[in-house]
């Protein structure tokens, strides 16, 4: 998703979204000097279009440039989810995508490699599905659906469905005795 498509998509996906106007190139440069960093191109691009935003429910705040403060460990917290989970840029190193990794400020869990992935994927995973993007997902156990024989007696086909893929991954026959 291009940054120009982000605002209309988020306004459609969430209620009560407030965007701050984009920052000027001079304001972005001043923030870089204040923090002693050079923003990757996609971070600059995001802030040039939206100098912060707030979604009321589920709660998401992307901080404006003037609220950015470097934290210990080379982290630059920039967004919070559900009023308690913060994600940050890991500014000490450029990753394989040529950007700063985005990590959980609390645990160091890597959320994504790029700001474009953050705005086009992770924000919507939270807003639409309340996926805990700041932590490793624990896959659910595959679900077993029973297709019971005549009057609950006889052969039973167990269909095993992977919840992440939403498709059948296996099946097994068993026998259902009369209850």
Mass-distribution shape: globular
The major sheet is characterized as: 7 strands, antiparallel
What is the mean pLDDT? 84
- CATH architecture grouping of the largest domain: 3-Layer(aba) Sandwich
Explain how this protein is built.
The chain has 179 residues and is an alpha+beta fold. The protein folds into 2 domains: 3-129, SMI1/KNR4-like (3-Layer(aba) Sandwich), CATH 3.40.1580.10; 143-176, no CATH class. The chain is 26% helix and 35% strand. The protein is built from 4 helices and 10 strands; from the N terminus they run αβααββββββαβββ. The chain has helices at residues 3-13, 25-35, 41-49, 115-129; strands at 15-21, 50-57, 60-62, 75-81, 85-90, 101-104, 110-112, 143-147, 154-162, 167-176.
Brief overview:
The protein has helices spanning 3-13, 25-35, 41-49, 115-129; strands at 15-21, 50-57, 60-62, 75-81, 85-90, 101-104, 110-112, 143-147, 154-162, 167-176. With 179 residues, it is α+β, with helices and mostly antiparallel strands.
């Amino acid at each position: 998703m291009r940054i120009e498509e982000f605002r209309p998509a988020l306004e459609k996906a969430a209620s009560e979204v407030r965007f701050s106007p984009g920052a000027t190139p001079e304001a972005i440069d001043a923030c870089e000097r204040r923090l002693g960093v050079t923003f990757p191109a996609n971070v600059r691009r995001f802030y040039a279009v939206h100098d912060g935003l707030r979604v009321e429910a589920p709660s998401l705040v992307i901080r404006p440039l003037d609220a950015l403060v470097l934290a210990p460990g080379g982290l630059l917290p920039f967004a919070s989810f559900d009023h308690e989970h913060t994600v940050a840029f890991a500014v000490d190193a450029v990753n394989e995508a040529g950007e700063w990794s985005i990590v959980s400020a609390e645990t160091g869990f890597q959320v994504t490699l790029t700001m474009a992935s953050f705005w086009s994927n992770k924000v919507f995973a939270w807003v639409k599905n309340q996926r805990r993007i700041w932590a490793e997902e624990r896959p659910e156990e595959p679900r077993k659906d029973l297709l019971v024989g005549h009057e609950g007696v006889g052969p039973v086909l167990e269909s095993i469905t992977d919840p992440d893929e939403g498709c059948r991954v296996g099946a097994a026959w068993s026998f259902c005795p009369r209850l």
